[in-house]
Specification:
8 helices, mainly alpha
C-alpha cells in the first residue's frame, strides 16, 4: 500500500477543505485575550463534547483500548469552569453506527488534539489549558496504524470519511455560532 492509498491519506485528502475552513474560522481567535479564549473553548465544547459522548455511546472503547486516556471532555469542562463559563449547548447531534464511522470520528478528535498542542503555545500561562494539553504522540501513530489496518476496503473508508466530514461540520457549525454572537472574530 502506498501513502496515496492509505486510509489516513484518504481521510486527510477527503477532509482537507473542511479542515481548512475550520482552521480559518478559528484563526480569528485571540488566544491571549481571556474573552476570546473562553469563546474558543466554548465553541470547542459545543462540538467536542457531543462527539466524544457519541463515540463512547457507540462503543469506541471496544475498538480503541486506550479510549479512557484519549477523552478530553472533562478537561474542557474544567477549563471552562476555571474561566467561570458554563458548558454551552451542543452544536448538534451526531451518531456513529459502525466501526469505520467510529474511526473516522476519532481521527478528527485526535487530530484536534495535535492542533491544540500547537495552539497552547499562544495561550498565556495563567489561562487554563488542560484541554489543549498534549497527548501521547504514540497514541496518534497507533491510531494511524489502526486506520490503515481496519479501514481495509473502499466501503469502510467511505464510511470513515463521511463520519469525519460530519464531525468537521459540527465544529464548523459551532465556530460559526460563536463568531455570529460577536464573542470573537
Amino acid at each position: 500500500m502506498t501513502d496515496q492509498t492509505t486510509a489516513r491519506a484518504e481521510l486527510r485528502a477527503a477532509t482537507h477543505d473542511q479542515h481548512e475552513r475550520v482552521d480559518r474560522l478559528f484563526s480569528h481567535v485571540r488566544l491571549d485575550d481571556r474573552q476570546d479564549y473562553g469563546a474558543f473553548l466554548g465553541a470547542q465544547a459545543a462540538a467536542h463534547i457531543p462527539v466524544e459522548r457519541a463515540l463512547a455511546d457507540a462503543g469506541i472503547a471496544d475498538i480503541a483500548p486506550d479510549w479512557e486516556t484519549r477523552q478530553r471532555a472533562d478537561l474542557l469542562r474544567a477549563d471552562l469552569a476555571t474561566l467561570g463559563l458554563a458548558v454551552p449547548d451542543p452544536a448538534g447531534a451526531i451518531r456513529f453506527e459502525s466501526e469505520a464511522a467510529l474511526l473516522g470520528g476519532l481521527y478528527v478528535l485526535e487530530g484536534s488534539r495535535l492542533g491544540g498542542t500547537m495552539l497552547k503555545r499562544s495561550v498565556p500561562s495563567d489561562f487554563p489549558t488542560r484541554f489543549l494539553g498534549g497527548g501521547d504522540s504514540a497514541a496518534w501513530r497507533n491510531l494511524l496504524q489502526m486506520l490503515d489496518a481496519r479501514l481495509d476496503t473502499a466501503l469502510k473508508r467511505s464510511v470513515a470519511v463521511q463520519a469525519a466530514r460530519n464531525v468537521f461540520a459540527l465544529f464548523e457549525i459551532s465556530g460559526h455560532r460563536w463568531v455570529r454572537t460577536g464573542t470573537f472574530g
